[in-house]
Structure of 6-carboxy-5,6,7,8-tetrahydropterin synthase:
Amino acid sequence: MIRITKIFTFETAHVLYNYDGKCKNMHGHSYKLFVTVKGKPINNLDDPKNGMVVDFGDIKKIVNSEIIDVWDHAVLVNGDSPHQELGQDLEGKGHKVIFCNYQPTCENMLYDIAEKIQNKLPKEVQLAYLKLHETENSYGEWFAEDNN
Ligand SMILES: Nc1nc2c(c(=O)[nH]1)N=C([C@H](O)[C@H](O)COP(=O)(O)OP(=O)(O)OP(=O)(O)O)CN2
Ligand SMILES: [Zn+2]
């Protein structure tokens, strides 16, 4: 079994409803996301993907379409909180708003990312690990063995 990792960056704003610190204010991060999948490398001379667990390019397509294209330069708001109104106001003024059904912390974003990616991976490949940096010094991790 081999693990392979692809790294992504995206620029996203968020606002934490009822948080007791500076992040109750809308602000942005240059998020850095590490996506690690595991599987057995293909061993077949006739397969163009010979030697690969999965083509890095295929991971890129999945993560881009599920996460990066959706969240990049958007603002994440907790749609299950009074911030729903704030989000609607911004959206009405032409801004890109993502209404989450959770508080958009690093932790909850990881759960969401894991669910979205797992649903799209080929069946012979498993999501093994995610790491999401909010800042250079603050990050969360998701491990398959903790969540399956
Ligand atoms: N457990 C969590 N704590 C905090 C989260 C979070 O998602 N999970 N988020 C925030 C803020 O959104 C933001 O990330 C600020 O975090 P923090 O590390 O406190 O910010 P700094 O600017 O001090 O970061 P440095 O990298 O240390 O400069 C708050 N807490
Ligand atoms: Zn933040």
Q: What stands out?
A: The chain has one domain: 2-147. The pocket of zinc ion (ligand 2) is lined by residues 14, 23, 27, 29, 134 (CB under 6 Å). The mean pLDDT is 97. The beta strands are 2-14, 27-39, 75-78, 97-100, 126-135, 138-143.
